[in-house]
Amino acid sequence: MPDDAMPDDAVTHVLGIDSGGSGVRVAVARADPPGCSAEQPPAWSSSPTWSPPLTWSSATPATVGDRGIDAESLLARVLPAARELLREAGARRLGAVCVGAAGMATLGDDLRAKLPDALADAFGVRRLALAADAVTAYAGALGQRPGAVVAAGTGLIALGAVPEGFVGGLGGTYGESETGGASGTGGTSGTDAAATDATATGTTATGGDTRWATGGWRRADGWGHLLGDCGGGAWIGRAGLEAAMRAYDGRAGGSKPLLARLEAVFGPATELPGQLYPRPDRPAALASFAPEVGRCAGEDPVAEAILRAAARHIAEAAEAVCPRLEPSEVALTGGLFRMGAPLLTPVREELAARLPGVRVTEAAGDPLDGALCVAAALAADGLRLPRDPALLSIV
């Protein structure tokens, strides 16, 4: 969109991009959705005068090459979609962009090298946030409030945050931190920012958790199906299939209901190894059996025990990253929780035992909502989520 089509007095919009394992999504929204520039995630539905974001999606994931996520191939798809959405929205000036991508921390070098100039050339935008998808999941779930998000699908990761400038304690607020820094857009950078699995440097917030400084991120799990992702879809599916094979063998711990579901889904039990081991998408294949474990849980104590074990892992991850501030909350997001009561009931019980007084809530939005939230806060100079070279960088 040429600069002469974007006069300075036009309403500012923001652009959000969500690149994940299941595809790529793009959205355009007003830059000042209710609540997002403060603590809350976007709430376009809160007023009849607000229109929801305009969106575009593709089921084809971003290409991954020698330099990680390939920026050129992503831009070739995203830019035409964004131009059309901006035209439909009547957007004349783009205030900020947030790109949230799975693998940003380890596979994002090409994106960091090419996206800033490409987006500036295409839209004249000078404010860009590059975020891991766990960060946009957090922003979509909790906005900029302190707490933790457990994102569970095929895998599982927990991410906790204390926003910059937040002073903990009963009725915690934003303002001057104990280290003397002001709230607002200023953030840490380099190695002083909280790393993906460490606390930030600085002084503990008033009334808060001694593991935390006045800002930062903490991460738990998300290490893949061979090293972790405990309690995620692949973990549950694998446990269910193991119980089915135990029943086939006549070993202790087997489940005949799960064996029946295995044969209904995959065919004869003896053929299962040949179906699973050669597959490049083995985690997704394992996770496809997780709903069967959920369906059996009401009548099968083995399936119920698997989900209770998964709930313990989920609660352990949340406990590891959740700041003990008041207020603080844990949000659950991701497709795994669509399993409903068979999983959610034990998860809530475990969280209540491990994090008494911490409110458990459903996510207000998804990672694309989170990308828009980050972009809107950035456009308004109100981004308080901690900067981090791997998780959230601002260009």
**What is the β-strand count?**
15
Strand order of the largest sheet: 3-2-1-6-7-15
The SSE string, one letter per element, is EEEEEHEHHEHEEEEEHHHHHHEHEHE
Mean pLDDT: 81
Structural class by sheet pairing and helices: alpha/beta
CATH class of the largest domain: Alpha Beta
Approximately how much helix is present in the residues? 25-40%
Question: What value does the Rg take, in angstroms?
Answer: 22 Å
Q: State the shape.
A: globular
* Low-confidence sequence ranges: 1-11, 45-49, 174-208
What's the CATH architecture of the largest domain? 2-Layer Sandwich
Q: Approximately what portion of the residues adopt beta-strand conformation?
A: 15-25%
Largest sheet: 6 strands, mixed
Number of separate domains: 2
What is the name of the CATH topology of the largest domain? Nucleotidyltransferase, domain 5
Total count of helical runs of at least 4 residues: 12
Describe the structure.
By secondary structure, the protein is α/β, with parallel strands linked by helices. The chain has two domains: 3-139 and 367-394, ATPase, nucleotide binding domain (Nucleotidyltransferase, domain 5), CATH 3.30.420.40; 145-363, Nucleotidyltransferase, domain 5. The protein is built from twelve helices and 15 strands. The strands form four sheets. The chain has a six-stranded mixed beta sheet with strand order 3-2-1-6-7-15, sandwiched between helices. Strands 12-9-8-13-14 form a five-stranded mixed beta sheet, sandwiched between helices. A two-stranded antiparallel sheet has the order 4-5. Helix 10 (301-321) packs across helix 11 (341-354).
